[in-house]
Amino acid sequence: MADNNSSDNESAAGSSPDGSSSRAEEYGWDPDGEHPDERPWRTKSDKPEKRGSVLREAVIIIGCVLLLTWVLQTFVGRQYVIPSESMEQTLHGCTGCTNDRIVIDKITYRFGDPSPGDVVVFKAPSESWDGAWMSPRSDNAVVNGMQDVLSWFGFAPPDENDLVKRVIATGGQTVECRNAENVGVKVDGKPLAEPYVDKALQAQDVAAGNILAATPDGQPNSCYGPDFGPVKVPEGNVWVMGDNRANSADSRFHMEDEYHGTVPISDIRGKVRFIIYPFSRIGGVGSYNPQQ
């Protein structure tokens, strides 16, 4: 009796009477000894589940990275490329050269207004500022939409004409310049101290043929351009000028628009904080109050 029972047990643990695999083999159990409850549960669906898990994790990680990037680009800071030489020597930009890459701070002006001396990036407030600017967007509707989405995450430029200048005067102040006075730009009747204006560079601009910034004897004039003002800056606006004064189409050249050349604070995208490229020029961009 004992031998018969033993034979029956072996048959149950091994193969079915018709020679097919037992359920233990079908589900991956070891038919040679261990009870299925004593082994990890292995089924044929394990590998697909693992692949699905990896895919879900990848989607979650990418989604979190994109969300973080969007938050940073929208509320904290953004990268821009300097398009021209109007802010030299503070910021470099020119055709065919390695233009500065800068990062702006978007938080500061959520808690306060721009101050004289701040270097800011702003959206062109009127068509007068656009000049030869052309939208970077494709004429293809699908590609255009993709570019809009990419711009949310900083992978494409925004569809707007962004410029960079230095704040010279703020709301309520009056700005002007008279070459005959030979004292340079004045705010509320007081001449400014502007160490960020490179006089040697202005002389080069005049020598290159900028007659608007030249005296009759061919030297840079005190305004580094034609007379302007007086202009009283409206509340909520600022007056901006380039550091490369003789080569900057700044507030002076847009006094016929609806803002009289000034820039609404609502159009300012942020305060320039750092140069991040090229590596040889990495560093901070400071503010110097010319009215002090």
From TrEMBL:
Keywords: Hydrolase, Membrane, Protease, Transmembrane, Transmembrane helix. Residues 10-22 have a biased composition (Low complexity). It is a single-pass type II membrane protein. Its main location: membrane. Its EC number is 3.4.21.89. It holds the Pfam family Peptidase_S26. GO terms for molecular function: serine-type endopeptidase activity; signal peptidase activity. The active site is at S86, K165. The keyword Membrane applies. Residues 32-49 have a biased composition (Basic and acidic residues). The chain crosses the membrane at residues 54-72. InterPro entries: LexA/Signal_pep-like_sf (IPR036286), Pept_S26A_signal_pept_1 (IPR000223), Pept_S26A_signal_pept_1_CS (IPR019758), Peptidase_S26 (IPR019533). This is Signal peptidase I. It comes from Gordonia rhizosphera NBRC 16068.
